[in-house]
Design brief:
The chain is 44% helix and 22% strand. By secondary structure, the protein is an alpha+beta fold. A 3-stranded antiparallel β-sheet has the order 2-1-3, with helices on one face. The longest helix is centred in the N-terminal third of the chain and has 20 residues. The relative contact order is 0.20.
Length: 111
């Protein structure tokens, strides 16, 4: 009886360890989308003088996985124009999403 309970306890620990070691798929998907947006924005010619420039971008995806900008919240018109030119209608590689689902990404441009 003691060996059986020990075996069951070890099996439960192994299974729970596997569950905790595997990150949720949804988090990987969001990270991948963020990384793709970072790559799209990485090669830029925008000049940042003294302080970091920030913006919050609200967007959705079309059926063919293209970004549609819904809103850009920032104090800086230059940043708004830059983000709109760079992101609008760009295609991303994402597998799990619903058409019309809204995403928010915070963008920071540093000097």
């Amino acid at each position: 009886m003691g060996k059986l309970s020990l075996t069951i306890a070890m099996a439960i620990m192994l299974v729970s360890g596997s569950v905790w070691a595997t990150p949720p798929e949804e988090n990987n998907e969001v990270k991948t989308l963020s990384e793709q947006i970072q790559e799209i924005l990485s090669d830029n010619s925008i000049y940042v003088k003294k302080e970091d420039l920030t913006a919050r971008v609200l967007f959705t995806l079309t059926e063919d996985k293209r970004i549609v900008i819904l809103a850009i919240k920032t104090e800086y018109w230059d940043v708004r124009g830059f983000l709109n030119r760079r992101l609008d209608k760009k295609k991303v590689d994402i597998t799990h999403f619903e058409v019309g689902e809204q995403f928010v990404v915070d963008v920071r441009l540093t000097s």
